[in-house]
Amino acid sequence: MMKRTIKQISKMIRIENDITSFEDTLINGACIDTRVIEEGNLYVPLKGRFSDGHLFVETAIQNGAAAAFWQMDVPNPPEDLPILIVEDVLTALQELAKAYLNELDVKVVGITGSNGKTTTKDMVASVLSQKYKVQKTIGNFNGKQGLPLTVLSLNEDTEIAVLEMGMSAKGEIEFLTKLARPDVTIITNIGEAHLQDLGSRGAIADAKMEIVQGLSPDGLFIYMGDEPLLKERIQAYPNIRRKTFGASNENDIYPMNVKQEEFGSAYSTNIAPELSLFIPVLGEYNVLNSLAAIMTGLEFGLSLNEIKEGLSSMQLTAMRMEMLSGMKGVKILNDAYNASPTSMKAALNLVMDLEQTKSKIVVLGDMLELGKDEIEFHREIGRFLQPSKIQYVYTYGELGYYIAEEATKQFGSERVFSYLDKQKLTNALLSVIRGNELILVKASRGMKLEDVVDSLMEK
User: Fold this and answer.
1) Within a domain: residue 212?
2) How far is the C-alpha of 264 from the C-alpha of 277, rounded, in Å?
3) Which of 136, 149, 150, 348 lies 20 to 30 Å from 46, alpha-carbon distance?
C-alpha cells in the first residue's frame, strides 16, 4: 500500500493547514471505516446520507490512524490531532490516488460491464499472476470512493493492477478510467442493470463505452463482439486497437466444445483448438468472460499454458456462481451477489441444462434498479422457467411475487411458493429437501439471499 510521509503527501495534493509539527509521520494506505482501520492509515471522513465521517475522526486516530483528512467547510477541526485540511475530502482522496498511481511503474487493466465484471476481474488477475505481481480490486471497491482506495492499497512493486469499474450514472466510468489510465480495457457485456437511472440499454452502452476515454494511446480495448450496441459505438473510435470475444465465430476468440462439469466448465478455443481449458465455475457466460482473460494474458506476453494454469487455479469472489456442498448432499449454486434479467436467464439456463438425476429447485429474489418495466422483467423470468426441468420455484420479495405468479401458470400452485418473510421461505425450503437436490439461489445484492444459503449449509 502507499507509504508516504505527510510532507510527501502535501506535495502530491494541496493541504490547507500547517503540518510542520507532524510532517514526518508515515502514512500507510487509506481507510474510510473506523471499524477496520489499520495502524498508520490515513482516515478519510466521507460524508454519507445519514452520517458524517468527521464525527469519527478522533475514534479513527484512537484505533490506529496516523492522520485524518478534514474538509475545509466543516467547523471546529480538532487542534490537538494530526489533521490534513483539504477543500473537499472525496476530491482529495481521488487526487491522492491519481498522484500515487503516477509514481508507480504499474500497468493497469480496467474492467466494466453490466454483468460478470467481478468474475472477469478474478480470471484476469489469476491469469496474469502466473507471470507478474498482480493486485486486484477487493470486494466492490469499484466506484468513485472505492477505486481510489484500491489504488492506494497497491504496493510499490505491483506490476499489474486489475481494476473493476462500476457505475450508476453517465460520466462515472469516464472519471474512473481517466484516473486509472488503463493499458487494457474490457467491457464484458451490456445488460439491464441501471435501467432505472439511465433509461435504455443504449444509454447503458454509452456509459460503459466511456472506459476507452482513459485508455493509453497504444492500449488494447477488449469487448463482447456479439453485442450490437458495442459494435455500433466502437465505430466512433477508429484508431483504438481492439479485440473481440464472444460466442460467434466472427470474433477474434470464441469457445469450442463447451461442456459443463460438476464443478466447472471445460472447453477449447479457436486460437488453440488442441488445448483443453477448464475454469472452476459453471456457465457458458463465464466461459465467454474467460476469453477476455485469455486475450489479456496474450497481450501481456503469457504463453497459452500459463494462461491455462491461471484459469484453472482462479479463486472466485464469493457469491458468484459458487458451487457449495450443503446438508444431505445438497449442491447449492450460490449466485446471490447480483441479478439482472440477462444474468438470471443465464443462470437458469445453466441449471435447466445440467444433467442432474435428483430434483432441481430455484430460489429467486427481486432484481433491483430495472426502472419502469421492472414488473414485466420479473414476469418474463416466470415465463422462462421450464416445469419439465425444475421441480420447485421459491421467490422472495415484492417483485419476486410476479415471477411466482407467471410460473404458477405452468407449474401449478403446488410447485411455486412466494414469500416476503425470508425465515418462512427458508423453513419451507428445508421442509422439502430430501437429499442431493441442486438448488440455485439468485437475486440482487439488496435481497441478502446469502442468509438462505447459510441455512442450507451442513452444520
Assistant:
1) yes
2) 11
3) 136
Return the residue matching grid coordinates 410447485: 415
CATH number at residue 48: 3.40.1390.10
pTM equals 0.81
What is the Cα–Cα distance from 136 to 215, expressed in whole angstroms?
18
Q: Which residues contact 34 (CB under 8 A, 6 or more apart)?
A: 43, 56, 59, 60, 63, 65
Q: Report if residue 69 sits inside a domain.
A: yes
Q: Which residue range(s) make up the domain with 56?
A: 3-87
pLDDT > 90 fraction of the chain, expressed in percent and rounded: 79
Count of domains observed in the chain:
3
Same domain, 349 and 440: yes
Does 99 map to a domain?
Answer: no
pLDDT tens string 48-57 = 888 899 999 9
Side chain identity at residue 344, one-letter code? M
Is residue 450 domain-shared with residue 365, that is, in the same domain? yes
* Same domain assignment for residues 79 and 124: no
Cell numbers found for residue 345: 436467464
pLDDT value, residue 193:
66
Q: Contact at 8 Å (CB) between 161 and 108?
A: yes
Closest CA to 181 of 101, 253, 259: 101
